[in-house]
C-alpha cells in the first residue's frame, strides 16, 4: 500500500489547515496516511551562525527523512501576512540546508485555507513558484475560502467546494 504524510504548515494547536488536511487525507482510499504536526518537530530559529556553531538539528533530519520515505505529501499552508507561517518557513529553511531537492519529486497535494475569502491565495502563489525549485511535484492545488462558513464537524459543508476537493484528491491518489 502507498504511504503518504499529511501536515499543515503551522504550529497552531487549533489549526484550521490541520483540520482541512486531515479531512482531505480521509478522502483517500487504500492509502496509508500519517498525519504529522509541526509541534512535534520543534526547531530553533534558523540562523547561519547557529548552524555554524551547532550544526543542523535532528528534527530537521527526521522530518526530511519522513518526506523521503513517503510516496507523497499533502500539505495545507497557513497564510501569515501573505506568506508562509514562521514555523513552516523555519522547517523548510532547515531542511533545505540538508537537501536542496527537499521534496524529492514526491507527488504533492498543496492546500490552503483561511478565515477570509482569498483562502490563502498569496501563500499558495509563493509555494507554487518556489516548491518546484526544491523538486516538488505539485499534482493539484486547492484553496478553501471562508473556513468558518465552509467547514463544519470535520468536513466541507459546501457541495461544490467539497466536489472540487474530492476531484483534487482523486488526481493526487492516481499520481501515487
Ligand atoms: C500573524 C498573522 C498574520 C495573518 N495574515 C493573514 C493573511 O495574510 N491572510 C489570511 O488570509 N489570513 C491571515 N491570518 C489569519 C490566518 O489565516 C488564521 O490565523 C488561520 O487560522 C491560520 O491558519 P492555521 O489555523 O492553520 O494556523 C493571519 C494570522 C496571523 C496570526
From TrEMBL:
Q: What residues does the NADPH-dependent FMN reductase-like domain cover?
A: 3-139
The record, for InterPro entries, names: Flavoprotein-like_sf, FMN_Rdtase-like_dom, NAD(P)H-dep_reductase
The UniProt keywords, alphabetically, are:
Oxidoreductase
EC assignment: the record states 1.-.-.-
Provide the GO MF annotations for this entry: oxidoreductase activity
Which Pfam families did the record assign? FMN_red
The EC class name is oxidoreductase
- Show the PANTHER family listed in the entry: CHROMATE REDUCTASE (PTHR30543), NAD(P)H-DEPENDENT FMN REDUCTASE LOT6 (PTHR30543:SF21)
Name-wise, this protein is NADPH-dependent FMN reductase
